[in-house]
Amino acid sequence: MTGDALQIAKTTQIGPFDTGRLAYGCWRFAGSTAAEAAQKVHAALEIGANLVDTAAIYGFGAEGFGAAEEVLGAVYRAEKDLRARTVLVTKAGIHPPVPYDSRASNLIASCEGSLARLGADTIDVFLIHRPDLLASFEEVADALTHLRQTGKIREAGVSNFTHTQIRALQSKLDFPLVASQPEFSPLAIDPLEDGTLDIAQELNLAVMAWSPLGGGRLTAAHQPEAGTQEARVLTVLEGIATRESVGVDHVALAWVLAHPSNLIALIGTQNVARIKDSAKVFDVRLSRQDWYDVLIAARGKTMP
Ligand SMILES: NC(=O)c1ccc[n+]([C@@H]2O[C@H](COP(=O)([O-])OP(=O)(O)OC[C@H]3O[C@@H](n4cnc5c(N)ncnc54)[C@H](OP(=O)(O)O)[C@@H]3O)[C@@H](O)[C@H]2O)c1
To answer: For the segment 38-89, what is each residue's pLDDT rounded down to a tens digit?
Structure first.
């Protein structure tokens, strides 16, 4: 590596909460037993990933909402002090088959359903999962205000919102949003230029990057088609990974965390050893040149 390494702190804040820069995503949790899920949450805590991200929609199927939340709830019920050791994030507003419903009544009912499944008194950070184009920002703000005033949520944020949608919602609230959750990885680079990361810095939002490994495409196991964005990015990541004696997945996570926005990477592996191994991200020394090389590979063209 040439030049100074980009700094990647191990911890950060999301609103009033102290969290690791790595967090654990429970999208793929449904189907795990409570004992298996507990091992994953403990592996995450071991590496400082104390923020746990779930959603009412995760595991949606014949039984309806909440299969993933049920599993996490079973973990919390089995170990009473665990809830206090995690920063709990859940989401509402995706409503098959509509597809979205952020009317106040639905957001409030969804939050109450999440609390019951999770066996929790309050959600630390409650996110609107996707923007419902038929719900006014005022109505969404009223629901969030009600949930916060009644103590059902501590703080609020959004996921998959554009920067203008974030600003519009914030304008209707008399408390600050604390988080945004966009897809962001070397395979999903739009947030760098579409205003998502800029508004996060402007409003002091923590940014939880979802699918930071492209859902598994930024790993040594993935065989990309020649000439694709995946192939270009993996080639650059592999060069850095070999030099740093880590996996391509660790370099991809480091690339996400090296951006100066307040990023938190939501890792989604269901493999306990891989969860623990993710801590290698903090051993990666990325130069500015490395970071731009990955971006240029992702763009498929040089910077202007
Ligand atoms: N807000 C939203 O709209 C939204 C959307 C999607 C996701 N999310 C959040 O983001 C979290 C993470 O998303 P994600 O699960 O897509 O994240 P990810 O970390 O990008 O991908 C996880 C996938 O990669 C595989 N993987 C990871 N490391 C690997 C390795 N070294 N070798 C081979 N395979 C590997 C995992 O398989 P194994 O399990 O076999 O390791 C798993 O299938 C979710 O749990 C959820 O909390 C939010």
So the answer is: 999 999 999 999 999 999 999 998 788 999 999 999 999 999 999 999 999 9
Fold classified for 11-226+255-283: TIM Barrel (3.20.20)
Domain spans in the chain, listed from the N-terminal domain onward: 11-226+255-283
Distance of CA 106 to the CA centre of its chain: 23
CB atoms under 10 Å from CB of 185, counted, come to 23
Handedness of CA 110, 52, 50, 115 (dihedral sign): positive
Residue whose Cα lies nearest atom 41 of ligand 1: it is 269
Nearest Cα residue to 222 out of 233, 210, 208, 209: 233
Q: Give residue 287 CA to ligand 1 midpoint distance, Å.
A: 26
**Closest to 16 in 3D by CA, of 257, 263, 206:** 206
Is any ligand 1 atom within 6 A of the Cβ of residue 237?
A: no
Q: What share of the chain is helix, strand, coil (3-state, %, to 5)?
A: 45, 20, 40
Q: How confident is the model at residue 125 (pLDDT cuts 50, 70, 90)?
A: very high
**Which residues are catalytic, by number?**
58
Interval 202-256: pLDDT, tens: 999 999 999 999 999 999 999 999 999 999 999 999 999 999 999 999 999 999 9
Say whether 74 sits in a helix, a strand or coil.
Answer: helix
